[in-house]
Amino acid sequence: MKLWGNYIVNRLDSIANWGYGKRFLFRSINSFNLISLCFFIVLAVICWYAYLYETVPPLIVEENTILDSKSTILDSKNATLDSKRSNGVCDLYDGTWVVDETYPLYNATQCPFAEKGFNCLANGRRDNGYTKWRWKPKNCDVSRFDVGETLEKLRGKRVVFVGDSLSRTQWESMICLLMTGVDDKRSVYEVNGNKISKKIRYLGVRFSSYNFTVEFYRSVFLVQIGSVPKRAPKRVRSTIKLDDLDHISSKWIDSDILVFNTGHWWNRAKLFEIGCYFKVNGRLKLGMSTMAAYTTALKTWASWVENMVDTNRTRVFFRTFEGSHWSGQNGHTCKVTKRPLARSKREYRSHFSDIIKKVVNNMSVPPLVLTWGP
User: Fold this and answer.
1) Transmembrane region positions (predicted)?
2) Confidence of residue 68 (pLDDT cuts 50, 70, 90)
């Protein structure tokens, strides 16, 4: 089957009956900077809302998000093809970004959990048009996020994000959205009094008035970081144990919503150049490619989900490849843009999606897979 998933669905108050698996796939995006990451997070929030409140027919996941200043599709040829494929079906992910002057849904400068590095306006950006984009499906509409109803739906629940900085920024955005509906902001607090940090292993925010938590666990590979075997070559300074899930995984199990991601750290620059190699069954695999290692790690994760997670209670999601926070040759440049970016063609990112699709399709109860891109 070309596309993953059938539909996003049923209300959160039926969470105890989540024993089914749905999945869908966005084709992978290849390159976008900090601002496009903001768009990506807004779309993630829209996905959450559709999941919590809407019953959607089976999804046909194709999309085209290249817009001009009048919010129309620049690529008319692809637009025509997409229209023929959709055949009038309500496909949440076949649409365009449109300008909505009622946006943004929250003010980052007023949210104590919004990381300073991602608060563009607070860091000196003068225009705010980039905050006004809203996702508009081609043949239907997504209901506006209802914070009051969402807070009630989450009452007594536990939401857990696991992964790298994509998970952390989505964690932040969800909390900031929900805080707009809380009168006493002091009733929302980090359970250990911790401040947001790029390397902190755990962050948990409690909404005491509604008795639920939204948590983040930093696990950039999902599997364990291992020791260096004896007599290993000098270039090996650390290892990744592809057949052992992160040792903090036991803390993820008892949750109602469990959202994973991994991908951005699986590249040669962040692995081999810092002396990090792979290990399976206690043996060093010096010649193993990153894609083969990624596949092995995902199979370890999939096995853990099937054996350790009660999918009758816990709804599992997997978010695929994220956009980089930086751009430029030195990796430390933030290119300011005003509209969603055109697609690009860095093929290794589509390989990630192919691997995820293959692994998830072989699971007995596949999680819902969210992948953004052309």
Assistant:
1) 32-51
2) very low
Domain residues for the domain of 104 are 28-370
Which residue type does 339 have? Answer: R
User: Could you tell me if residue 4 is inside a domain?
Assistant: no
The answer to the question of residue 11 being in a domain is no
The CB-side HSE value for 106 (13 A sphere, CA atoms) comes to: 26
Is residue 2 one of the residues assigned to a domain?
no
Compute the mean pLDDT over every residue in the chain, rounded to the nearest whole number.
Answer: 77
Cα(253)–Cα(346) distance, rounded to whole angstroms? 35
Output the pLDDT for position 322. Answer: 58
The amino acid at residue 353 is S
Say how many Å lie between the first and final Cα of the chain, rounded. 18
Is residue 14 a part of any domain in this protein? no
pTM for this predicted structure: 0.74
b/e burial code for range 216-231 (CB count within 10 A of at least 16 → b): bbbbbbbbbebebeee
What mean pLDDT do residues 131-141 have? 89
State how many domains the chain has.
1
